[in-house]
């Protein structure tokens, strides 16, 4: 894909409609699919403003969607925040409306990507735009050998209050509501299916879909002042989708009490029931989370990725099938370059040198 606006327009016109959802990960705006339809029949002068915004953003950032060869927005400088991109605010061009502020930010160094929910004024509500921004940050160069672990954190005293209820009124169509819940489900499944471990770093309240996000992460570290709840039942909207992740993280009776009453549980209770991996004082939260992430980042990415995928794959199986699957995985692991490197390093009493 070429990196100037006119060339990009020619390239993108040839993208089949079935691939539009992937394109639109980088421009998460309601009605985007409809606005782009049908691209191939429209004259350039008749194209919607959204299409122009998308092309300009693609050309400006050189982000590697569909094989673009630009430097990539997570490789500009160590720990540097993301510059203007598909969904972030940038200088307004002639005849081009200014985009809204980006709802997440991301930075990466030493194999650790930190994604921050950055809408504290709205209690980091998981609006459709927020979900798509988070999805984009998680998906970006997921297969890169330079990515070893992801941390999801948040600005402000609320980790996330769950869905934006203003998007769930009858002023919006059932199709829009379906898109919200489907996108949320995709993000939660993406975390489990991602090749690298994903850590939730929680300092504050996590409710409804926010609690679901914590439950969906592979590891969750929280401050001792954090709390967790699924209060939808109190608003007439039962937390059915959060219950999927919650019911797989804590015992059934604990999950159902939270779902039926909407009452919050403390960080210590969440730790005791398995929703959290560790609870620390607030002043040590970042230090401890980074320590865990750093340890994972020091290990072999292929080995960790194989282990994560296998762990989730064997969970729903019966005992015999689980052992069959994991036994074969152990054979595959031994055959990996890093598998042999680790074994030889142990025998030779030296530190292993991982391929990735």
TrEMBL record:
Transmembrane intervals: none
GO BP terms, alphabetized: fatty acid metabolic process
InterPro entries: ClpP/crotonase-like_dom_sf (IPR029045), Enoyl-CoA_hydra/iso (IPR001753), Enoyl-CoA_hydra_C (IPR014748), Mitochondrial_ECH-domain (IPR052377)
GO (cellular component) term, any one: mitochondrion
Keywords: Fatty acid metabolism, Lipid metabolism, Mitochondrion, Transit peptide
CDD domains attached to this UniProt entry: crotonase-like
GO MF terms held by the record: hydro-lyase activity
Domain of life: Eukaryota
Pfam families in the record: ECH_1 (PF00378)
Keyword Cell membrane: no
Subcellular location: Mitochondrion
Coiled-coil blocks: none
Family the entry assigns: Belongs to the enoyl-CoA hydratase/isomerase family.
Known function: May play a role in fatty acid biosynthesis and insulin sensitivity.
Protein name: Enoyl-CoA hydratase domain-containing protein 3, mitochondrial
Organism: Neomonachus schauinslandi (Hawaiian monk seal)
């Amino acid at each position: 894909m070429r990196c100037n606006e006119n060339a990009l327009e020619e390239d993108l016109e040839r993208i089949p409609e079935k691939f539009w959802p992937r394109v639109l990960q980088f421009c998460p705006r309601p009605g985007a699919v409809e606005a782009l339809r049908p691209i191939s029949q429209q004259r350039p002068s008749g194209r919607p403003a959204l299409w122009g915004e998308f092309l300009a953003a693609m050309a400006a950032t050189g982000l590697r969607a569909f094989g673009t060869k630009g430097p990539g927005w997570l490789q500009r400088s160590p720990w540097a925040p993301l510059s203007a991109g598909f969904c972030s605010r940038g200088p307004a061009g002639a005849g081009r409306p200014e985009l809204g502020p980006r709802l997440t930010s991301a930075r990466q160094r030493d194999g650790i990507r930190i994604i921050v929910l950055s809408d504290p004024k709205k209690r980091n509500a998981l609006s459709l735009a927020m979900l798509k921004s988070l999805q984009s940050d998680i998906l970006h160069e997921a297969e890169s050998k330079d990515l070893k672990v992801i941390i999801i954190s948040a600005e402000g005293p609320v980790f996330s209050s769950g869905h934006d209820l203003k998007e769930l009124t009858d002023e919006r169509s059932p199709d829009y509501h379906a898109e919200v819940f489907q996108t949320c489900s995709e993000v939660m499944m993406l975390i489990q299916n991602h090749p690298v471990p994903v850590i939730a770093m929680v300092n504050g309240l996590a409710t409804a879909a926010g609690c679901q996000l914590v439950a969906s992460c592979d590891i969750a570290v929280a401050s001792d002042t954090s709390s967790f709840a699924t209060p939808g039942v109190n608003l007439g909207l039962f937390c059915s989708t959060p219950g999927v992740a919650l019911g797989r993280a804590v015992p059934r009776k604990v999950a159902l009490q939270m779902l039926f009453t909407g009452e919050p549980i403390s960080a210590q209770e969440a730790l005791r029931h398995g929703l959290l991996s560790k609870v620390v004082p607030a002043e040590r939260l970042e230090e401890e989370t980074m320590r865990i992430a750093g340890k994972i980042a020091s290990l072999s990415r292929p080995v960790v990725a194989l282990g994560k995928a296998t762990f989730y794959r064997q969970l729903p199986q019966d005992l015999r099938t689980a052992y069959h699957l994991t036994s074969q995985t152990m054979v595959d692991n031994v055959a990996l370059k890093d598998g042999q490197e680790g074994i030889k390093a142990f025998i030779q009493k030296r530190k292993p040198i991982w391929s990735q």
